[in-house]
Amino acid sequence: MSVNSKPNPAISSMPKAPQLMDILRCALAVLIKDIKCEFRVKSALSAILLFAITSAIAVSFTLQAYGGNSAVSSTLLWLVIYFSAMSGLSRSFVREEETNTAPTLRLAARPASVYLGKLAFNWALVIALQCVTAPLFIMFMGSSVGNWGQFICILLIGGLGLSAGATAAAAMVAKAATKGAVFAVICFPLLIPALVISIHGTNIAMAARGAISAASDIRTLIAFSGVIITASLMLFKFIWED
Amino acid sequence: MISLSLSNLTHEYNERLVFQSVSFQFDGKCMSITGCNGSGKSTLTRIIAGLVTPIDGCVTVSVDGSSIARENLRDVVGLAAPDVRLYGELTARENLEFLSTARSAGIGKHRIGEVLEQVGLANRGNDPVRELSSGLRQRACFAAALLHEPLLLLLDEPSTNLDEDGISMLNEVIQAQMRRGMVIIATNDVQEAALGQKTLDLGGRQ
User: What ipTM was predicted for this assembly?
Assistant: First the structure.
């Protein structure tokens, strides 16, 4: 048996503990990879947008008479956003399993980076969905927005809450046989708090009643998202790895 | 110096026993894993790579006497297997660029060019992987496994889909890996299995 007497450069670079910047750089790489793949296949984007545009227009035409009622408008807007998002947010993980690229990703990237990268990708999808749905919905329903700052803030942070929970749930169901049904069942209890707070905050932002502010809803949504992201980061290793 | 120790490994899928109490020690350059279809060769390579947790027993990969923790195995191990694929929508080069950033191992662009050259994909590196033939996709998978210069290279049925040139490239890759560290080949091919200094035969179906 021959032994290589030359010093092996790979041995001198033995594994080190990951630094925060390494995790974030790797998460950014996962995000960019997912965006590139999505723009070349458009599997999640088309599913989400098709559902969103159809349901926003259908709901707007049928319930236009309620456009001036901010409680009804905000509820309908978030229902359209929620169900449209549910139709596509599981795709990023499911596609990895279906195309056998999940082992490649597991071998290359640390679980925390995978979760953060996929979360960023799903959040970007939800923002793209909201950019299309919200203007269409407001235009066709004839609704008005009293406080645009709070309205946009609630949409963004509510979208983050939905994405955070949906990303962890998507990783859980990616290997299941009946992915769609299991994804909806896991997401429903997990995301109900974010959905209810988002509807409440959007109602206030649309109505803009005097001193009543949606600030407390925004703070609660930030806290909710923070808790879900922290818990997901702690648990994701066990969900993602075998 | 890298060494591998398998201790009382047992694994099953859906209550079907794949293998039981497999123990093996190896600190040489090349070993082969053989056995009938369904004997667990691919499963064993995945267990060694840290992708699958055995239901019992443990795998220890040590470098210079220090065992590598499972979460750090990805820095030491490269795996090329039929069910470990690259992103079809991306080009081979884009796949390698993604993997090099994801690994955070300071892999330079020159290394990507070098490894594409090594597997004979220098001229097809900018083609989407899904447009490559099965043999060229196999070469792209070798490039991904070799990118970070792993000390332990795991090859599962490596010559599947390869033409004569491909098999010659594969032999060069194996020889280069034997100089760098260790290579483990899971195969049914007698010639490939003969490259191993030691053979772990998983036998037939349980």
Answer: 0.92
